[in-house]
Structures are given as C-alpha cells and as structure tokens.
Design a protein that fits this description.
Low-confidence stretches: 1-6, 390-394, 596-605, 840-849, 906-931
Mean pLDDT: 82
Distance between the termini: 32 Å
Largest sheet: 6 strands, parallel
Strand content: 5-15%
Structural class: mainly alpha
Strand order of the largest sheet: 3-2-4-5-1-6
Radius of gyration: 32 Å
Shape: flat
Length: 931
C-alpha cells in the first residue's frame, strides 16, 4: 500500500494562511492564530516558525515541539529574559520572532510585557490560541490595537480535504469517501488525521483500481482514536457528561427535551465550547454533537445499561410530546428497539413504512424482518440494533418466511403486509433479484391485505422487473395480468405504472398520451395523480411543450397537500424545471432551495432528482462551486434505486460542475469514476444522455474541443430522434459553442426550427446556435442580453464575447467594442469567467480571425496527433488539400511546426498525451473519436 509517511500532510491545504503569516511577521508585529480545538493551529504555528528560521530569522518558541534552528523555553518569562530585543528603529525582519503555542494559558504579567515589547517594535510574535477560551489581557491587546494580524484557522472544506488526502495517500480519493470523511470529522484536522491513520491501519481505507475508497468505520474505533476524542471532551460537569452521552445515542435532541431533562444550562455551556452545535428547523431547535465522529466513539465506550436507559428516556420524552410527526414515530420505535424493547406489531410495521418512505432502507429492512418473526430471540431473527448481516448472498430466506405465514393464519395478513413492504425495501437497497423473489411469493398468497398496499407493491415489482432486472416483456405481461385481476377501482396505479415504463423506454410521446388518458379517467385518485402528474409533465417538457407541462402541474397544485412528500418534491422539481425553461431561472432556483430535500434526522436525500435539478440551475446561474458542494453531499449519501436516476448521473454532474469551477484535473478523474459506474446497474436513455452531455462538457473545459463537439453532436442526434427537443438543443448548443458554430450542419437546422417553436430558454438556445453558425453578431448580442435578463450569466458573457468576435471578423469594430464592453460588465459585476474556448479564440483573434471552420477542423485534428492521411480520410478530402490547409493555418497562427498547434489553439496548453488520455478514459467507445 502506497503511503506518504510525512507527518506534515495536514499542512498541505494551508498555503493561504502561511502566506498571510509570512507577510505579517515580515512587515508587521506578527500574527495571532485562533480557531477551535483540533483545527491545526499548532502544526501551522510550527511550520511557519520553521520556515522563518530557514530564512535566517532569530526564532524562539514557548511550548510546542522542538524545531531545528530555534531556541525553546518552558515559559514566556524565561524566553523574554533570554531574548535580545532589537532597537526600535530596526526593520520587522530584523526583530527576534517569538512563537507561543496555547497563548491562552499565559500569565497576565508575561502577556502584558510581551505586548509592550511588540508595541515598541522590539520583537515580533506568532502565537496560537483557542477561540473558546479567554486569552490574557496582553494577548487580546495585541490584535485589538492592530499590532498583529488576526488569522482564523478554520476547519478544512471538502476541496481542501481532497488536497490533504492526496498528500497523505499519494493518489485520488473517490468522491463518496471524501464526503464521508468530511461528514465524520467536519474538517477538523486532528480528527481527520487520526481517522485516516486508523482506517489505514484496520484496512477499511484501501486502494482499489487506483482510487482510495472508505465505506466508514467497520468496527469499534481504535484506542488512540478514542483517546483523542476523550481528550477533547475532558473536564465536563456531570450534567454536561450526561448530555454528551444522551446525544451520542439519540441525537438530534430537541431543545425542549433537553430542557425537560434539566440539561439546558449544560447545553449552553457545551455550545460555547464548540462541543455541540445548535440547528434551527422551522419552529424546532435541535442539538447535535459538533464532531460526528465523537458520537461513534462516545457510544462505543458507554455502558450498555447507560445507553439503554438514555434511549428509553428520550423515547418516553418524545412520546409525551404527542409524536404527531412521522419522524417522531420512527425515532420512538428505533430508540426502543436499540434499547432492547420489542415494539407492538402494528407500531413496528408503521415505523417500517415511514423508514421506507424516508429512504432509510437498512432500518426499514430490519423492522420488516422483525415483524416477520414471533420474537426477537428467534434463531433467524435479525439483531435489534447494530449492522445487519452481509448482503452479498442475500439475507432473506423466503421459504422459511412463507412457512411462518402458513403456520399462523391469524397473523398471516400482518406478515404478508410485512413481506410486501420488505420487497419494496429490497428494491431500494439495490437487491432486485431478492426483491422479486419476495414480492412474487407475497403476491401469490391469497391472504387479504389492504388494496392500496397490495397495488403499491405490484407497482414496485413491475418497475423492478423492467428497470433493474431488464425484463421489460415479462414486466409488461405481468402488468397486463395484474390489471385484469385487481378490481377496476384499484387499477389506476397500475395504469400509471405503464406510463412510467414508457418513460424509462424513452417513448415520451406514448407516455404523454397514455398518461393524459389515465388522468382524464382517474385523475381524482390521489395515488394515481401523484404518480402521473410529475411524470407526464416531465415528458411534456422534454418534448418541448413546456407551457403544457406547467399548466398540467398548476391544475393539480391544490391537490399537492394530499400527496406524499416524495411526489410533492418531484412535482416541485419539474415545476422549477419548467420555470427555468420559460426563462425564470432565478425564481426556479429559489423555489427548489425552499424545498425540504433531506431527512432531518439522518440527512438522507428524499429525492435525488430534485438535487440534480437544483445543481443544474446553480450552474446555469454561475454558481458552480455551490453545485459542487451540493453534489458532494448527495453522492456521499447511501445509494438507493430511484427511477430513472443511476449512480453515474450525480457523479457526472459533479464532474461538469468541477470543470466549470476550474478544477479540471479533478473533473477528469471524476469522469473516470463515472465510466466505471456506467454499466454497473440499470440505465435509461435519460441517464445516458445526461452523462454524455457532462462528459462532452468536461472534454471542452479541459481543452479537447474537437472530441467534445463530436460527443455533443452525436447526443443531439440521439435526443432529436427520441423527440427530446430540450436535451437535443442543449447538446447542439454545446457543440456550436466549442467550434464557433462549425459543428452545425444543414440537417441540424430542422432541430433549430423545432426548438425555436418551443419558446422560452429553448428558443434562446436555438437563436444562439443560429447566431454562431451564421457568425451573426447582432443575433449573438441579443441572445446575450436575453440570457442576462433570465439569469444565465455565464452564457450571457460567453455570447457577448462571441458577438464581439463576429462583429470584428465582419469589420464592424464599433459594435465589436460594444459587445466586448457588455462582456466585461458581466464579468466585473457578477464575477463570471469565460470558458477556455472563448478566451482562447479571443486571444488568437489578432492572428487567426480569418481561420475558416474547415481550417479549425484540420487544426484540431492535427493537434491530436493525427497524420495528414488520417485527417484526409476523416474529412473526405485529399491529402494535398490537408497540406494546403495546414500551410495556411501555420501562417495565420504564427507557428512553424505541427507540435505548436495545440499551444496555438488551446489556452490551457494540455499536452497531447493528456488530451489522448482524457479521450480514451472519458469518451464512449462508439463516439467515432480519434484514438
């Protein structure tokens, strides 16, 4: 296993702080580092002092580790007695530099003496102190009087953590692992270091296919990791200790429950010390441990008797509040199970259904299995708490469970209901074959169960068969048989299932016609409406009928109150998508931001599609970094089946957002992960096309414009053939953007006409394509203005830059200056940046404004390493013609050799090997690109 054994790896993400410190001790009186415990203040202090000593400064330090080239002292008083302060008229770099770790522990007299020497310009100081502890007067006066810089040392964010892990592991860490580590440590440098070393030692953090992966703590934390956590929780009062233990087994806790337990003051004290965090959710105030890893460690060290007592107390307190919300019911049952109390059967099944709706499938599975056994001590009963058995070979013995149903006729209806729910849960857990076995057996029982539950399970079974098992014909035959068997008043959901299968099969027109027929007949049925309305609206919008989609959603908006949370979220997501396509991009993003996407208790996403739509809007608004943060959280969550989203889709969106944020290397690495997941599980045309678009976008941002255009053009053709006007137009626009309109051919004009008829944002995209294809500066400038009004600021700036180039090429220099000014205004006022292909083209305009589209094609192909003969074959021209094109290209670009083409055409300057590697790793094998 490759490892970077250096102990300084957490410092690799502190370059900005080190620069600030260097400036402060070189030009001013020094710096004061402050932050929460464990964020890395001491390590940062030591690194800065060592570097100052290496630069020739006289360095003395109080506390901390011994450093080469410095003198160490036990107390500040000893240090100040030994130091020879410089004269007051000396330069800052000539003064002695005193480093002090844990400056909050200094005595008042020494701190005031230090303040006087710094104020007199006799020495400089670099000190570290905790933000949750009062510092002595002399230290506070240093920064209050601006004698030293006040430097905050914050926890690592996800991007910084990625850099730190690369320094330690010597390789790429997959996105889910990165977010799990961040979620466990919240970027605390000390916790991260100890957790990584522990995970490496136990083997849970391992390198697979060149990528480091970690699924979480697999066993009780090691002694050192536990001791580090315990040190951070020392000196607690009895009430504080009780509250920390209560949070470890039952967080989050409502402030009312904490107060009722007499622990309100303890909570306030722990909040001031940064040991707990306080969150406000609507009218509720909840308390959690600030570092999630603390919960695992404290719980693992707690007596079982104590843990069970605390769980029972919290469950009883929740029950006394009335348990009016589903979340409260689920927590009560879960806590009592963990305390060894067997819930009543009906309560257990109710809680299992809530857990399944909230996508907490492991908990739902445990509850379903417990409901199928007579007692928790049955030999084959699942454990009441802790990890479930390994699912590699399945955990459900269907034959044994069916025997239990037959042996107890009185409990048979209850157990069949549990079996039906278990089948749905297994689909969510990604066990489609096992789910089919369970659902098939349960459906064959002639035991009366509530019709709604039976039909819902049939719906899940059919979709599982068509989507996950890819048995579309079997699913269709089963659906026909079930529709014939159930009573007509219960068949509406199954008719809706047929519509969903049409969407998954990319038959959107059929889905719309079938869905509207079912809605006309059964639209008053809430179960049918909540399933069909978002689906039909989505299909309409994809086909270009955005207004029709919006009207359909608006027509049912009053009925949303009777729908389940996931259906409402999906409807809001599709509604926001329609609003953005109609031009209200800002409003659509704000609407999705207000939607509650997460389970407040466990943080699991309620619906991935809503997150993906919000991410897309954030990127369109020019906020890709926010999209990156959102997508990282989504990817780190436990995966579950969600039609038609696959695991590759969020990862592909993350790659695109990273590329737009300028993180090109990480974007390419992420696309490699996407490729490895592409065929791992079910896929749909929608997922495939979304992934292909992001792949083309990453190629474009990393300099491979030709391959990006090839992929985007092929995607536009596929989407157009399926009638998906919106995706086809977006893909064609990408191809046109990276080729300056050169990718737009005569057959594409029909697509452009269809897109213009759709109106809204799609029409603007169509105008954009035409403006690029025709080099029409006026059209491009008008497109820029319209996009800016809609909120699509990055595209607006890009269109303005392209308008300037078109005007300049046409000799309309005044209009070119006007468009350039518009572009600069957008960049200055909104902080947007131009993509590489626009900046590159703008820079080359003075030399290569007259490059024809054909010359650009030849230059791009030659830059990838293709021979003249290969280029001639690709473009269906003679070798002589290629040679003539290259002669003119060299002259226009001011270069003399083929090796200079890439530099001349691409601002990023990726070398040929990297471009070819990106092409091999990211591009589909059938894309027709040069290999």
């Amino acid at each position: 296993m490759e490892k970077n054994e250096t102990s300084d790896w957490p410092i690799t993400a502190r370059d900005a702080e080190l620069r600030t410190i260097r400036t402060a001790i070189g030009q001013h009186g020094g710096a004061l580092l402050f932050g929460a415990p464990g964020v890395g203040k001491s390590r940062l202090l030591s690194t800065a002092l060592r570097r100052a000593a290496e630069e020739g400064r006289t360095v003395l330090h109080v506390g901390g580790v011994a450093l080469t080239g410095t003198r160490g002292f036990g107390t500040l008083a000893e240090c100040l007695e030994a130091v020879r302060p410089s004269t007051s008229d000396g330069t800052a770099t000539g003064r002695p530099l005193v480093g002090i770790d844990d400056a909050h522990t200094l005595d008042a007299a020494s701190s005031l003496r230090l303040h006087r020497l710094v104020a007199a310009g006799r020495l400089s100081v670099l000190a570290a102190t905790r933000q949750d502890v009062a510092a002595p007067t002399g230290i506070d006066k240093l920064w209050v009087e601006r004698l030293v810089e006040h430097v905050e040392v914050a926890p690592f964010d996800s991007a910084a953590m990625g850099r730190v892990l690369r320094a330690r592991l010597g390789g790429h860490t997959d996105t889910a692992t990165l977010e799990r580590l961040w979620a466990a440590t919240h970027g605390n440098a000390l916790m991260l270091r100890e957790l990584v070393e522990h995970a490496l030692q136990e083997g849970s953090l391992r390198r697979t296919d060149g990528v480091w992966r970690w699924s979480g703590l697999t066993e009780r934390p090691g002694r050192r990791l536990s001791d580090v956590i315990r040190v951070s929780l020392r000196d607690l009062s009895l009430d504080e200790h009780e509250l920390v233990h209560m949070l470890a087994v039952a967080e989050p806790l409502e402030a009312d429950i904490v107060a009722a337990a007499g622990l309100a003051k303890a909570a306030e004290s722990l909040d001031l010390r940064g040991i707990v965090s306080v969150e406000r959710k609507r009218a509720r105030v909840q308390i959690r441990l600030a570092v999630p890893l603390s919960r695992v460690v404290v719980a693992s060290r707690m007596s079982d008797l104590t843990a069970n007592r605390l769980r029972r107390e919290v469950a009883d307190a929740l029950e006394r509040t009335g348990a009016r919300r589903d979340e409260d019911v689920l927590r009560i049952v879960s806590l009592r199970m963990e305390a060894g109390i067997v819930p009543e059967p009906d309560q257990l099944l109710t809680a299992a259904g809530i857990a399944a709706r909230r996508r907490d499938f492991p908990l739902a599975e445990r509850m379903c299995l417990l409901a199928l056994h007579d007692a928790p001590d049955d030999l084959d009963a699942p454990p009441m708490y802790g990890p479930l058995p390994d699912r590699t070979n399945g955990t459900v013995d269907v034959r044994r469970l069916m025997t239990r149903v037959e042996e107890s006729p009185a409990r048979a209806p209850y157990r069949v209901r549990a079996l039906l729910l278990l089948g749905k849960v297994l689909v969510g857990r990604g066990s489609p074959a096992e789910a089919e076995e369970v659902l098939s057996a349960a459906s064959a029982c002639r035991v009366p169960v509530p019709p709604a539950e039976y039909v819902s399970a049939l719906h899940t079974r059919v979709l599982n068969m068509a989507w996950s098992l890819r048995r579309v014909q079997d699913a269709s035959r089963l659906l026909d048989r079930m529709i014939a068997e159930v009573r007509p008043e219960h068949a509406g959901v199954l008719h809706a299932t047929r519509v969903l299968i049409s969407v998954l099969a990319d038959r959107l027109s059929d889905a719309v016609s079938q869905g509207e027929t079912v809605l006309a007949e059964r639209g008053e049925d809430a179960a049918v409406a909540q399933m069909l309305v978002p689906t039909v609206a989505f299909a309409r919008a994809e086909l270009g009928d955005v207004i029709g989609a919006s009207r359909l959603l608006d027509g049912y908006r009053d009925a949303f109150t009777g729908w389940d949370a996931a259906s409402v979220t999906l409807a809001d997501s599709v509604s926001a998508r329609c609003a953005s396509l109609l031009g209200d991009i800002r409003g659509a993003a704000e609407a999705l931001e207000r939607v509650q996407h997460h389970d407040s208790g466990r943080g699991r996403p309620v619906l991935l599609q809503a997150h993906l739509d919000r991410s897309r809007l954030l990127r369109l608004l020019g906020r890709p970094e926010e999209a990156v943060a959102l997508l990282r959280r989504v990817i780190a969550g436990e995966g579950s089946e969600e039609y038609p989203v696959s695991g590759a889709w969020p990862l592909a969106q993350l790659a695109g957002a990273l590329a737009e944020s300028g993180h090109h290397t990480e974007a390419l690495r992420t696309m490699v992960e996407v490729r490895s997941l592409r065929y791992d599980g079910p896929v749909s045309s929608v997922t495939e096309d979304e992934t292909a678009y992001e792949s083309a976008l990453v190629l474009a941002h990393t300099g491979d414009h030709y391959s990006a255009a090839v992929q985007a053009t092929e995607l536009a053709g596929r989407a157009e053939a399926a009638g998906r006007t919106v995706r086809a137009t977006t893909a064609l626009l990408l191809a046109a953007r990276v080729t300056d309109g050169g990718a737009v051919r005569f057959p594409h004009r029909e697509l452009v006409r269809s897109a213009r008829a759709a109106g809204g944002l799609t029409r603007v995209y169509a105008d954009y394509v035409e403006g690029l294809a025709d080099a029409d500066g006026g059209t491009l400038l008008e497109v820029s203005r319209t996009l800016a009004l809609m909120g699509a600021l990055p595209l607006a700036a890009e269109a303005a830059a392209q308008a300037a180039r078109a005007f300049r090429t046409a000799g309309q220099h005044r209009k070119s200056r006007e468009a350039s000014a518009a572009c600069r205004d957008l960049q200055r006022d909104h902080g947007v940046t131009l993509p590489s292909w626009v900046e590159q083209d703008g820079r080359a305009d003075s030399d290569s404004a007259s490059l024809t589209p054909r010359e650009r094609e030849v230059a791009a192909l030659a830059a990838t390493g293709m021979s003249n003969r290969d280029i001639a074959t690709r473009l269906v021209v003679s070798v002589r013609t290629v040679e003539n094109h290259l002669h003119r290209i060299y002259h226009k670009l001011g270069i003399t050799a083929r090796n200079d083409l890439k530099r001349g055409l691409d601002r990023l300057g990726h070398d040929r090997d990297e471009a070819r590697r990106a092409l091999h790793l990211v591009a589909p094998a059938d894309s027709g690109q040069v290999a």
